């Protein structure tokens, strides 16, 4: 048989257009998959962050804004009380020379005195504290009956402890009897400390309480 009579296998030609289209389709598919993964991750991140901000829980974004606002209000009250004591020689509603520290709430004569609304508790009517009006009973000043109240982000009055004996130490409300933990000292070096009962509105559950000293 002559060599010229041997059939050679056909050479399959590569269609460059088809190859390019296939590559483009694969790239487009990967891009779409990556886009959906990014969107899903972002949605989860935002959902968790919004939940933590709404509840006051610490999360990915750090300290929630609601906690920062609460701490800022507590700081304003601390400063106002300090200025009041400098002006009048004692804290509002306390008799000068008191020998025992006092725990009270952000309401009644104490708040009225800081607002400068009553000559009995603030003879010079000095406005030591400026706070917004509460919305839906939360995050601000409101009147319940005849009583003025300053509420936190969850509608609760703040807890305020005053160093009435002026020794610059207040018993730590977080420390329980018999506690020997170095993380929770028995006293706090301060003339005023304030805390909010937090999202659960229970002052006895310290995990979510927002405190001026920590």
TrEMBL record:
Superkingdom of this protein's organism: Bacteria
Protein's name according to its UniProt entry: Uncharacterized protein
Organism of origin: Prosthecobacter fusiformis
Lineage: Bacteria, Pseudomonadati, Verrucomicrobiota, Verrucomicrobiia, Verrucomicrobiales
